[in-house]
Design goal:
Blueprint: H1 2-25, H2 44-47, H3 53-57, H4 62-71, H5 76-87, H6 107-110, H7 124-127, H8 132-144
């Protein structure tokens, strides 16, 4: 009997913890909690003192670039590795970083297109086209001499106000 109760208790505890975790996740955030839930344990100078190779030399490490080239030669990492390999930046240690320079003009400087033309907007009355069903309804109403109750009253339409 103890063997059957242990798994049920374990399952009950796991489901209870899952339910309680979901309940706290749905609470609305408030600005009353001012303490940081994850305080910095390590001092700043310990975990920011090391600068990554990629940031210093503007290129991937040799072996990482070689692996990226073997996996997918058209990936950005592999192409940058190939450019630096051909430039000889892996021949000696601590070669300076290589930055590309582009001397061609920018596309918006070459194309003299100018701003978009400002066309006048058509009036709203010209945009409204009568549909076939509304024109049929209008001709039948005109033949009977009655006016549609949904249409706005105009001076040309005869309306009997009962006065």
């Amino acid at each position: 009997m103890l063997k059957t109760i242990k798994p049920l208790l374990a399952f009950g505890l796991l489901s209870l913890s899952a339910i309680s975790a979901d309940a706290t996740a749905a609470e609305r955030p408030t600005f009353q909690v001012t303490c940081d839930p994850r305080p910095d344990i390590l001092p700043y100078h310990l975990y920011y003192s090391h600068t990554e190779y990629r940031r210093v030399y503007n290129r991937p490490r040799y072996h990482a670039g070689w692996i990226a080239h073997k996996i997918s030669a058209t990936s950005q990492e592999a192409m940058v590795w190939c450019e630096n390999l051909q430039a000889g930046n892996y021949d000696e240690k601590h070669m300076p970083p290589m930055y590309k320079r582009y001397f061609a003009p920018k596309p918006w400087e070459v194309l003299q297109t100018g701003p978009r033309p400002d066309f006048p907007k058509p009036k709203a009355e010209l945009l409204r086209q009568p549909t076939a069903s509304s024109s049929r309804r209008q001709t039948t109403d005109d033949a009977n001499g009655s006016v549609d109750a949904n249409s706005p009253a105009t001076e040309s339409s005869p309306i009997d106000l009962g006065e």
